[in-house]
Amino acid sequence: MTKAVLRNSTLEDLDKRSFLHPFTSLADHARLGPWIVESAKDVFIRDSLGREYVDGVSGLACVNVGYGRDEIAQAMADQVRKLSFFPSFWGTSHEPGIRLADRLVDMAPGKAGKVLFGTSGSDANESQVKIVWFYNNILGRPKKKKIIARHRSYHGTTIAAGSLTGQAGVHRGFDLPLPQMLHTREPDYTKYAEPGMSERVFSKKMADELDALIQKEGPDTVAAFIAEPVGGSSSGVLVPTEGYWDEITRVLKKHDVLLIADEVVSGFGRTGKMFASDHYGLEPDLLTLSKGITSGYAPMSACVISQRVMDVLSSASAEYGAFGHGYTNTAHPVCAAAALVNIDIIEREGLVERAAETGAYMLTRLREIFSGGPHIRAIRGIGMIMGVEFDEPAPGVDLNDTIPMQILRQGYKDGIIIRATAGNHTITLSPPLTIARKEVDYLIERFARGYELVTAAQAK
Asked: For the chain, how many helices (H) and strands (E)?
């Protein structure tokens, strides 16, 4: 009887009964149910009620090449027919995995050595932690295990990666962060710079704070520093101030601390360079990739390990035996096939350059419309990722009732998908790199309409 009833239930009923959604209020979802997305093409999303939206956030800053690419679908289908799966344990390999690893080694900033694949940014950063710890054990430095991240950062939700994430909502109730994970201040110039302080001086101040933290903990205990070269949507899109990375890398070299560059969001053209590290001359010891590696068409991540670190790892075989880490779906052949074609499209269609050009136009439009407006605190962006930050709400205001959250809800009514990071009071935009100027105009005009409606209501 129960199964018969379930077969006749609506999708909304089945979802509420069975589907646990990430980053969703369980109580609210039980009451309100899901929003069901049915189809997508290029930058447009259609829901189960037939309503169409311009996707201003690429899903979760994933879909760099746009939705519905037949070329990627065909590559995945062909690979399923040829070799749908085989593990990469024990030295076993296959052509898509080999070619993708080699391509990433050639593309990556700095002196890359090898690539370890996973399925999400979270598991990739989890792997980076284990690599850092293994590296220091091999070198006979068992105390050098602490990893420093930044407040407001997002690096995932697994045990180690969730500990690195600098957001209370990922820690609360989960016994995180781990004691080895520390946090330093995020480089928010608008929030933390003293009156009249130049960006250069502010950058040195941020580096001095990191230096002081390393000195306090003991340089012999601090193993790595992890950060997004450009802060992603969850951090409120923090574009580093002038000289920031020069100052930070100076401190890391001083204390022999590894740099993990988390480019899960910023990689594969999002910032107007293939990797955000390229803007700042960074040569990370470890590089974390996901999202844009397949444009979200298949779950995949990658740890690009520098030759410096690989030389140490490779020296350990006699003592430790096999490298005891990896996943069933490491270098999954279907995902690797999708990634190879995705990168082909990014390069062939000049989407990196297009992100730089269209992103500059988009940021200009945002500044023209929002600069100096009520409740506007800052407008930041680089390439095809940008954020409009609002004043902090008055004490006691429910996060769901803040200006960004109200604008987000109005956006859905007006046919656009934007993102509101309630904790950072920021509306973020990260559309597919394929977005045309007319669609940019539509997106920003609807965003501006929501802003005007919400702020007018606030003023009453």
From this structure: 19, 15
The C-alpha atoms of residue 80 and residue 59 are separated, in whole angstroms, by: 25
Which ranges constitute the DSSP H helices of 20-140?
26-32, 58-61, 70-82, 95-107, 121-138
Considering the entire predicted model, what is its pTM? 0.95
Report the first-to-last Cα separation within the chain, whole angstroms: 54
DSSP string, 267-324: TTTTTSSSSTHHHHT---SEEEE-GGGTTTSS--EEEEEEHHHHHHHHTTHHHH-S--
Question: How many residues in the chain?
Answer: 460
CB 417 within 8 A of CB 55: yes
Is residue 84 within 8 Å of 318, Cβ to Cβ?
no
**Long-range contacts (CB closer than 8 Å, 24 or more residues apart) made by 451-458:** 451/370, 451/373, 451/407, 453/410, 454/403, 454/406, 454/407, 454/410, 455/373, 455/374, 455/375, 455/403, 457/406, 458/374, 458/375, 458/403
φ, ψ dihedrals at 334, nearest 5°: -70, -40
Q: Would you tell me the crossing angle of helices 95-107 and 333-348 to the nearest 10 degrees?
A: 40
pLDDT 10s per residue in the chain (460 long)?
Answer: 455 555 668 999 999 999 999 999 999 999 999 999 999 999 999 999 999 999 999 999 999 999 999 999 999 999 999 999 999 999 999 999 999 999 999 999 999 999 999 999 999 999 999 999 999 999 999 999 999 999 999 999 999 999 999 999 999 999 999 999 999 999 999 999 999 999 999 999 999 999 999 999 999 999 999 999 999 988 899 999 999 999 999 999 999 999 999 999 999 999 999 999 999 999 999 999 999 999 999 999 999 999 999 999 999 999 999 999 999 999 999 999 999 999 999 999 999 999 999 999 999 999 999 999 999 999 999 999 999 999 988 888 887 889 999 999 999 999 999 999 867 899 999 999 999 999 999 999 999 999 999 999 887 7
All residues at 6 or more sequence positions from 205 whose CB lies less than 8 Å from its CB, including other chains: 197
Q: What residue ranges define each of the domains in the chain, with the CATH number in brackets?
A: 35-65+350-459 (3.90.1150.10), 71-348 (3.40.640.10)
Q: Where are the alpha helices (H) located in 317-436, listed in sequence order?
A: 317-320, 333-348, 351-370, 403-413
Q: In a 3-state reduction of DSSP, which class is residue 142? A: coil
Structural tokens at position 200: 């250069």
